[in-house]
Write a structure and sequence with these properties.
This protein has two helices and eleven strands. By secondary structure, it is an alpha+beta fold. The protein starts with a strand and ends with a strand.
Amino acid sequence: MTETVSYEPAGTVGGVEIRRYPLLVLASVRDGEDESGFRLLFAFITGSNRARRTIPMTAPVITPVEIAMTAPVISGAGRISFVMPAGMKVEEVPEPVDGRIGIETVPARTLAVARFAGRARPDEVDAVTRQLLADLESAGIATRGAPFLMRYDSPLTPGFLRRNEVAVEIGP
């Protein structure tokens, strides 16, 4: 079973869940036109690293959100990140063989999250993102940074069973 990132529920605002996440360690890559970032990261966690060590797959897989008719809201569209298992420190992550893979930490933070099912088609993600941002604005909650998509299931999972979420950091 895939490990899912833990968080502490901190309330709701309309249909939006507020969550507190701990510090996370990510392996990330910017997706090129010819190679899939997912494949690069999957190879990394299945042993294509300097230590030839396997790392358990975790969920979610994190990607930027693009709002229709605009530029990507996170610079560097095509970025994809795998969360390293809980308890793994950045210095414990094996060195990637492929220089396109970077290891980084994301400090503990509070996120506003909107969940939805389906294949996370761009139009679905756009609608959920717009609603999330509108709900937060209506509630007077300030956002920090750009929204991002969190996918929890394998591409082989039927769409109606897939768990997807759009999240954005909130706070002063």
